[in-house]
Structures are given as structure tokens and as C-alpha cells.
């Protein structure tokens, strides 16, 4: 019989293959279903090569709520290199505030007009619609723990903010945060979805709920 020459998969392999296909179908189903939310944290995975480290859900929620309170009703929020806070703000689907994301990673262009390509090496290379001092609060998380990176990001922050600043960076940057932006360290300690070697802290220049 010619069928004897056809390789046969074991029942274990077949079961594993079926399980794999089922998982793939479920993933595709989630993406196409109305329940899939492109703004969910994790809908875009962090890229370590771009020095991306997402906050855990609790930290992202806390920072998003702080930003909304600080911005006030109808306030404008700018997220510089802090996409997990941006995504959490969009999950909230609030009508009392508006938000934009300034980010080097062009994957975030899926968010449409709220996405602004941003390279900290060119801190003031911004679109004309981002007017100076037009945001009630600016949240920033510079991608690198260096004086140069913070100094250049600070130029963008000072250009965009009406006054309030929320900075997330390493504890080792405390002196620079005070020098560049006049910020003080908060008691709140941000956590990431993956443990980082460097201790992270939050810094603000206003009376916040993070103390």
C-alpha cells in the first residue's frame, strides 16, 4: 500500500500541533474582536534595544491618575518617552483631558495624530501644532541615565509645559533633575514590569499626590 510510505505524526505531536493552531486562532480572534484594545499596556511590547522598559500596571495607573489630577478638567497632557503611561491614559478613555505621545519608536504611530516622532538629540525639532507652553503637565522618562540625555529632554519639557513637570528617571539623577528642571524627589517609587538594576524615582515641581 502506498500509504505506508507517508510519514505519520504521533498522537502526542498532533495534539501539540492542534493546541498551537488553536492558540494562534485565539490570538487572531482577540485582535479582530471588539474587545481588543490597541491602547492596552502590552499591546506594543517593549524593545530593549531602544532602551524601553514598561512600568507595571499599578505604576502606570498611579502616574496616569496623577497626570489627570495635575492637568485639571480639560487639561492637556504630554507624555515624552513614557508610552506605558500614555497607554494607561487612553485606557481610561477620559473626556476631561487630551494627551499626546512624543516617542522615537514609530510603532506608536498607530495612535494617529496623537503620536509625535521624537528624538531627544533634537529636542526642539517639533511640529508646529505643538505650541510652546501649551501642556498643563508634561510627563517624561528619558531613555538613558545620562546628563546629556536629561539636559536635552529638559529643553523639550520646558518648551512644552505651562509649569508642571513629572519626571521619572533613576535615583542617581536626583541632582541633575534639580539642576536642570528644579524638581524634587517624591516618596512614590515607580516599578517596572521587569526588574531593573537601577533604582527609579519620580520627581515633580508641584504639590503632587505622589508623596
Write a short abstract of this structure:
The protein has helices spanning 11-32, 57-71, 83-92, 147-160, 174-181, and strands at residues 75-80, 97-103, 115-117, 135-140, 161-170, 184-185, 200-204.
Q: Secondary-structure blueprint of this entry?
A:
Elements: H1 11-32, H2 57-71, E1 75-80, H3 83-92, E2 97-103, E3 115-117, E4 135-140, H4 147-160, E5 161-170, H5 174-181, E6 184-185, E7 200-204
Helix pairs in contact: 2-3, 4-5
Number of domains as seen in the coordinates: 2
The CATH architecture category of the largest domain equals 3-Layer(aba) Sandwich
What is the CA–CA distance across the termini? 79 Å
Percent strand: 15-25%
Q: Helical element count?
A: 5
Give Rg in angstroms.
22 Å
- CATH classification class of the largest domain: Alpha Beta
Range of helix content: 25-40%
Fourth-tier CATH superfamily name of the largest domain: Vaccinia Virus protein VP39
Which sheet architecture does the biggest sheet show?
7 strands, mixed
What would you call the structural class?
alpha/beta
Would you report the number of β strands? 7
Numbering strands along the chain, what is their spatial order in the largest sheet?
Answer: 3-2-1-4-5-7-6
CATH topology of the largest domain: Rossmann fold
Mean pLDDT: 83
